[in-house]
From TrEMBL:
Organism field: Maribrevibacterium harenarium
NCBIfam families: PRK05740.1-2 (NF004372), PRK05740.2-4 (NF004378), PRK05740.2-5 (NF004379), secE_bact (TIGR00964)
Assembly: Component of the Sec protein translocase complex. Heterotrimer consisting of SecY, SecE and SecG subunits. The heterotrimers can form oligomers, although 1 heterotrimer is thought to be able to translocate proteins. Interacts with the ribosome. Interacts with SecDF, and other proteins may be involved. Interacts with SecA.
Entry GO CC: plasma membrane
GO MF annotations, alphabetized: protein transmembrane transporter activity
UniProt xrefs under PANTHER family: PROTEIN TRANSLOCASE SUBUNIT SECE
Matches recorded under Gene3D superfamilies: Preprotein translocase secy subunit
TM stretches of this protein: 14-34, 40-58, 88-109
InterPro entries per UniProt: SecE_bac (IPR005807), SecE_sf (IPR038379), Translocase_SecE/Sec61-g (IPR001901)
GO biological process: intracellular protein transmembrane transport; protein secretion; protein targeting; protein transport by the Sec complex
Name of the protein: Protein translocase subunit SecE
């Protein structure tokens, strides 16, 4: 019984995703077809179709899993310990110093190799 219910739910999800694809395609094609119309009207139509497509997508099993993941990510962001301004500035300066140092080293190696190759080729 459980596998039968899952199969029907899976078929329903496939149908819902097909509807989502059709709605997105309709938005893209309609926006192109009605390009002579006002941008405001086209924007309202695209946003309406995107809203309906998003609602349908969120009603699927994967859509609900995505929504749950987004909620958990929002909760996790609240737990993050963000660096202070001083830590951020210090880290940025260290990265900048390393980048400048490595660019000088690479420039020196490139110049040396260029000089060696030109001396060999003559």
């Amino acid at each position: 019984m459980s596998s039968n219910t899952e199969a029907q739910q899976s078929r329903g999800d496939v149908f819902k995703w097909a509807v989502v694809v059709v709605l997105v395609a309709a938005a893209v094609i309609g926006n192109n077809y009605f390009s002579a119309e006002s941008l405001l009207y086209r924007l309202i139509a695209v946003l309406a179709l995107a809203g309906v497509a998003g609602y349908i997508a969120l009603s699927t099993e994967r859509g609900q899993a995505f929504f749950k993941l987004a909620k958990e990510a929002k909760t996790e962001i609240r737990r993050v310990v963000w660096p202070t301004r001083q830590e951020t500035v210090q880290t940025t300066l260290i990265v900048l110093a390393v980048v400048i140092f490595m660019s000088l080293v690479l420039w020196a190696v490139d110049s040396l190799l260029g000089w060696v190759v030109s001396a060999v080729i003559g």
